[in-house]
Specification:
The chain has helices at residues 6-17, 22-28, 34-45, 52-65, 69-101, 118-123, 126-130, 144-153, 209-216, and strands at 105-110, 132-133, 164-172, 175-180, 185-189, 200-202, 205-207. By secondary structure, it is an alpha+beta fold. The strands form two sheets. It has a five-stranded antiparallel β-sheet. A hairpin with a 4-residue loop joins strand 4 and strand 5.
């Protein structure tokens, strides 16, 4: 495995220098269940620095590996910096892709900000299916409000969100306006409105809701 984190290198290099088996390190870190301990240590090596199990491992490392606490703290800090930088770069990449693919659109707004029956809502398409108002982009932006008003008035109930109270038009990534049912502007936003997304995790792994819905036979 390449591009290991500093905490991984510290643990593995020191363990090998001491000719210590991974099972022994797990016991020295306070785990009676050796297999579980090895998994927790491996998780720290992969960048888990904040869970309760990770903190237990990190706190035990100076004594378990007979090294200075400062060395562990430096490795943790360097690992955290690498992870934070990777997250920033990933977020910037997502932002760039979102901006490149952006097209004007609108969303219905209801009396409830949190969807009812949230699991079914997410599995059956979420906001993109139930709240999104497609706009005829062959028409000029000045027509977007009238287009959305027409849909909103035909939809007295915003699915899973109660009575329809209005809508939001996303004109650009940096400009959105909330309107009432009459098409009167209520509030301006300096970033496009993005409804909350439903995320599904199985065994700690994120599973696309569309894929899971297909398995259940309830996908759109």
């Amino acid at each position: 495995m390449t591009n290991q984190y500093p905490i991984h290198d510290l643990i593995e290099n020191r363990r090998k220098r001491l000719n210590m088996r991974r099972s022994e390190l797990a016991r020295l870190c306070g785990f009676k269940n050796v297999d579980k301990g090895i998994r927790r240590i491996d998780s720290v090596c992969r960048g888990d620095l904040n869970s309760q199990a990770a903190k237990m491992v990190i706190d035990a490392l100076p004594t378990a590996l007979n090294i200075d606490k400062a060395a562990v703290e430096i490795a943790i800090r360097e690992t955290a910096d690498i992870i934070a930088d990777a997250k920033r770069r990933a977020a910037a990449k997502r932002e760039a892709a979102w901006r490149a693919s952006f097209i004007p659109h609108a969303y219905l707004i209801g009396t409830q900000t949190r969807p009812s029956q949230i699991t079914i809502y997410g599995l059956t398409g979420g906001a993109e299916r139930w709240l999104k108002i497609p706009l005829d982009l062959s028409q000029p932006p000045v027509t977007f409000v009238a287009q959305a008003v027409s849909v909103a008035k035909r939809t007295p109930l915003a699915p899973f969100h109660g009575t329809t109270t209005g809508f939001i038009v996303n004109y650009t990534p940096d400009s959105a306006v909330r309107f009432d049912l009459g098409g009167n502007p209520i509030e301006h936003f300096d970033r496009a409105y993005v409804p909350g997304q439903v995320e599904l995790f199985l065994g700690g792994r994120k599973v696309p809701t569309k894929d899971f819905a297909k398995v259940l036979g309830i996908g759109s």
